[in-house]
Design goal:
559 residues; mainly beta; Jelly Rolls; Immunoglobulin-like; 6 helices; disordered N terminus; signal; neurogenesis; repeat
Length: 559
Amino acid sequence: LKMTWLWFYLPLHLLMAACLCHSIKAPTTSSQQSFKTDLFNFHHSLILADGKETTIHLLKDIPKRYYFVLEESRALAPFSITVTPCDVPIEWSILVYKASPSFPGKATQGDHDTQEVSKSQKAPSMVSTIFNYKGNSVETYMGMSSHSALYLLEFLSTERDTHITVYLTTDTTSGHLYPELPMDPRIDVVGIGHTTVTLTWKHSPSALQHRDSIQYCLLVNEKHNYKSLCAAETAIRSSGMKVPPTLALSLSPYLLEPQQVMILSNSELSIINKVSSGEVRQVCMGTKNTYTVPNLSPSTQYYFDVFIVNLLTNASAAYTGTFARTLEEPEPKVTELKDGKVVHVVLDGKKQKFYSLQYQARHKKIQFTFQLCQGQIRVHITKNGKVVASENLSGLRYFSLKGKLLDTYLVQLRSTEESNSSVRVQASPHFHKPLFPLLPESLKIKSFSKLRTCRSVTIAWLGTQEESKYCVYKRRIEEDQIWRELQSADRCSGPESRHKSEKVLCKYFYDLNLQRAVTTETIKGLNAGTFYLFDVYLFGPSGIPVRYHSKVVKTRKKC
């Protein structure tokens, strides 16, 4: 059994057409229309290639027809047709046109009317529909042919424009275009965590026989399962993204779009597509049949599809998809705040999780104090479940609140940037015993450009009406280190973290007139043309320092 071009079978085609047109002397209107339609179908059809996957584009409500011819070469020769919808459900059917064995192909001697009646009786048996299907699943028709026949395939999409792939083969013994699925093609969920799901599936016979050219690819999304790889790619593309033709081709980083992220880890390649309906994650892991999907969101339902892909032909087969819901995120651990005790909290910016502190009031008036040490932090305070404060922290911040005895306050802290952030927190009813010193209007250090020399610089900072201790420190710094040093500076660290050689001086001062509460200091003994980082620490009654914003000054090169 083999495929032959139509012009080699023009006699068969013409004989059937002659039979259909000449066999009925006076056909009814419906019979006449039916046969005319059959002939029209042949003349407006395309040849379907044998042994090759064909992509067919369908326009809504417009049928598309392909044909192929089977030549008689042996009894009961097999053939198969596989149709893969790549989007919406479609309708497709197979019609067979067979030449009547009793029709000689030309008129014989005898009664002409008798011949006409005989041919009229034979005609209806020459055309038959042997298969039809409607849906979006991958369907394969296996057929047997015992004599020469012409087959017509008709495809129709009634929902919208779409495309499909069709694979015809008359050689069912020398291997398959599509990788072979196991007897049980289900995906098993063997583990579920808050941010992970572990999957396993039975090996494909193709993967065991052709390890170098076969691999498994997993697709994860939050919408639904896909019955084929081309259906998954169509869905991603319809979300406004360009995707490579298949997952096998998408392994090239040069094909990535701006909305895609490629991750290569432990010989596994992941491509994450950022689409409007969430992430669509593609992971190819070679011939491993167990995989733990990481970095999922808690309490979220995900759909998982595994495809076995032939890297040589780019053909694929789909396992039966599954779904799982990750576990709910556990309640954050709550730390108890005690009166007057300072808690230092470090927040992981990458996880973006809240850190919770709880305080039960023993007085009607309480005060929360926050000293931002590093990064950017948002604070959220509730009293008995009702929000009383919510804002981004900056420097030193006080919240004075009124309530009742035994009111329960919950303080939640979260980093607002990807790098780590840290903060000091204190809850206290004792307003007359502040943890931190009285602060000036500004914690900036000012330098005077005109007073700079090759060996000295002059700086100034604001003080308060309260006599306090101020200590000045300096450190030589390279120009390429300035930005990193200023961004990563820990504003809660005190002089104890500094080297003794960096200390310049300590002094006390205050002024009841805030307009005059300013002090200057000239630091000498510096090197010419050199960058120096200056810090000022303010100490209050509790001994906990407040660090002014660091200042970088460069001495003059020439004087």
